[in-house]
Every structure is written in C-alpha cells, then in structure tokens.
C-alpha cells in the first residue's frame, strides 16, 4: 500500500477517483430528486467538511515540519564538516591537505548519493560515505600519534566528526519517515466521502453551482498529493535543499 502512495500512478489515479466520487454524489442526488424525494440540509454537512479540513491541514502541517527538519539536518551536517575544515586551516599545510582531501571526497560522494537516490528510492545507507568517514577518523588518529596535531585539536576533530556522522545517519533515516499509512487511508477515504457529499448537495439544488465542487477537487487533490510528495524527499518534487553541500564543496576546492 505504501509503495502505491509513493508511485507516479497515485498522482494520476487519485484525482480521477476523487472526481468520480463528486460525480457519483451528483448522480445519486439527481436520481433521488427525479423520484421526488425531498432532501433538506441539516447543517451537519458543514461540520463534517470542517472536521475533514482540520485533518487535512494537520497532516499537511506534519509533513511540512518533517521537511523542514530534514533541511535543518542538512545544514547542521554541513556546519559540522565546515567546522572541521576551518579548524584545519589553523594547522600546518599537511594537516589542511589531509582534511581537505577527505572532506572533498565525503561531499562529492554525498551529492552523488543524493542524485542516485532520486533514481532509486530503495537506497538508504551510503556505505561509501561510511568508509570515507572511517578513513578520515584513522587519518586524524594517525596525525595525533605522530604529534602533527595537538591533543586538543585531536579531541576537537574527533568530536566534530562524530557529530557529522550522527547527523548523516539522522538524514538517511529521516528519509524513511512517512505519514502513517492509517492516516493516509483516512485522508484519502475521507476525501472520497466528502466528495460524494459535496456532489450530492450540489445535485439537489435547482441551480447547480459547479464552482464549489471544482474548488474542493483542486484544493483536496493538490493538498493530498503535496503531503505524499513531502513524505518522499528522495524522488518527490519537494526536496530538502542541498545547496549548502554544493557551496561548501566549492569553497573547499577553491
């Protein structure tokens, strides 16, 4: 079920089903109207629509916050790597060279991994980046043993490197976070029911107002698709900004 929500088919099939639910409610109302059955609004229709609107806005807010958190993790990770490089510039040229080479490799691999995930969403862990972190860790320990760097510098590098590694794992696992499947089923099923209700109430009116069903269709479709898109940062249209990595890589190379 989750794979269907994240597929391209969902973007096409869901709006069609929502449109059919509105049309179904309209046809049902017209068939009942032709039989001279009277239906009067009780006032609870607006309450039901309002309740669904709250659910929809809550889900959109949660997905938006998750997207913002992913972007903040990227910035924090880049800041941790940047702190390592800035500290290395205060040391000898040999230390700066070792740190620069490792950070360029890490950032290059990270950007390549992001592009690869856009093609294959099943990729979660980046083993190549993990090995590069391990190499940098070993280089720092070796420089400390050779007394190329002071114990204080060694402690600073190791602490910042550990922070960067932890943040990298947070970024990878945050890409797996999704709106719970039960919530998605509730939102989608609820939209169909509200679509039937809106089509039904519109069909019973002597003067048909197609503007309200149209607005509901557009807003609901875009909102649900946006929630689905925000949930999938690797292949969705809305993705965290990785410009920080690109700018940092450019600064280090220069």
Question: Would you mind describing this structure in some detail?
Answer:
By secondary structure, the chain is an all-alpha fold. It has two domains: 1-33 and 180-231, no CATH class; 68-178 and 241-254, no CATH class. The chain is built from nine helices and no strands. Helix 3 (44-88) packs antiparallel against helix 7 and helix 7 (181-204) runs antiparallel to helix 8 (211-231). The protein is rod-shaped. 24% of the residues are buried. The model is unreliable at 121-125 (pLDDT under 50).
Quote the distance from N terminus to C terminus: 48 Å
Work out the number of β strands: 0
- Dominant shape: rod-shaped
Mean pLDDT rating: 85
Count of discrete structural domains: 2
- Estimate the helix proportion, in percent: over 70%
Q: What ranges have pLDDT less than 50 throughout 5 or more consecutive residues?
A: 121-125
Structural class: mainly alpha
Q: H/E series, N to C?
A: HHHHHHHHH
DSSP strand (E) fraction?
under 5%
Q: How many strands, what sense, and barrel or not for the largest sheet?
A: none
Radius of gyration: 27 Å
H/I helix tally: 9
């Amino acid at each position: 079920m989750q794979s269907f929500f994240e597929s391209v088919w969902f973007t096409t099939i869901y709006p069609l089903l929502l449109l059919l639910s509105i049309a179904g409610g309209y046809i049902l109302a017209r068939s009942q109207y032709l039989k001279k059955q009277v239906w009067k609004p009780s006032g609870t229709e607006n309450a039901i629509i309002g309740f669904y609107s709250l659910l929809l806005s809550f889900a959109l807010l949660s997905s938006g916050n998750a997207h913002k958190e992913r972007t903040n993790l990227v910035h924090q990770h880049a800041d941790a790597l940047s702190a390592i490089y800035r500290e290395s510039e205060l040391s000898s040229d040999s230390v700066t060279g070792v740190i620069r080479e490792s950070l360029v490799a890490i950032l290059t691999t990270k950007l390549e991994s992001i592009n690869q995930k856009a093609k294959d969403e099943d990729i979660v862990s980046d083993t190549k980046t993990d090995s590069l972190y391990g190499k940098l860790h070993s280089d720092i320990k070796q420089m400390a043993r050779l007394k190329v760097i002071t114990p204080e510098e060694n402690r600073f590098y190791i602490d910042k490197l550990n922070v960067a590694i932890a943040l990298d794992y947070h970024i990878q696992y945050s890409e797996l976070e999704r709106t719970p499947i039960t919530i998605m089923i509730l939102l989608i099923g609820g939209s169909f029911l509200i679509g039937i209700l809106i089509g039904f109430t519109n069909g019973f009116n002597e003067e048909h107002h197609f503007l309200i069903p149209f607005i509901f269709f557009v807003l609901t479709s875009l909102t649900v698709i946006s929630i689905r898109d925000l949930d999938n940062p690797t292949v969705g249209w809305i993705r965290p900004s990785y410009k920080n990595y690109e700018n940092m890589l450019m600064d280090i190379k220069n």
